Amino acid sequence: MDIIDNEASSTHCGDEIATSGRKSHHSEKTKQNLVTRLNRIEGQIRGIKGLIEKDTYCDDVITQISATQAALNSVAKILLEGHMKTCIVERIQEGDHEVVDELLTTIQKLMKK
Question: What's the distance, Cα to Cα, between the start and end of the chain in Å?
């Protein structure tokens, strides 16, 4: 479990998650969809914690972790699609071609999970 703890500490300070400071512009429908999915994932995480506290069989816990990871990947795919269709396109149209390197870095981060 130390690996997970170390990764988490490198992405945020205390309770604040590090961000670029840029804003996104999702529709209210998309935001609500994402929040609903994240609320469900939050419940899954609490469920996994409960399974561990109850000394549930490891394979059962791993199965639940896998389902939660798949749900998080689904959220990431929705965000990535919207990001590419809006933010990336807009920045390229503004002449900011460095955004392509940023996108490639983001995809690499998603793929190494």
Answer: 15
Instruction: Tell me the CATH class for 26-111.
Output: mainly alpha
Confidence (pTM): 0.77
Domain extents in the chain: 26-111
pLDDT in tens, the chain (113 residues): 333 333 333 333 445 676 777 777 788 999 999 999 999 999 999 999 999 999 999 999 999 999 999 999 999 999 999 999 999 999 999 999 999 999 999 999 999 86
Query: Among all chains, which residue has been given the structure tokens 């409960």?
Result: 50
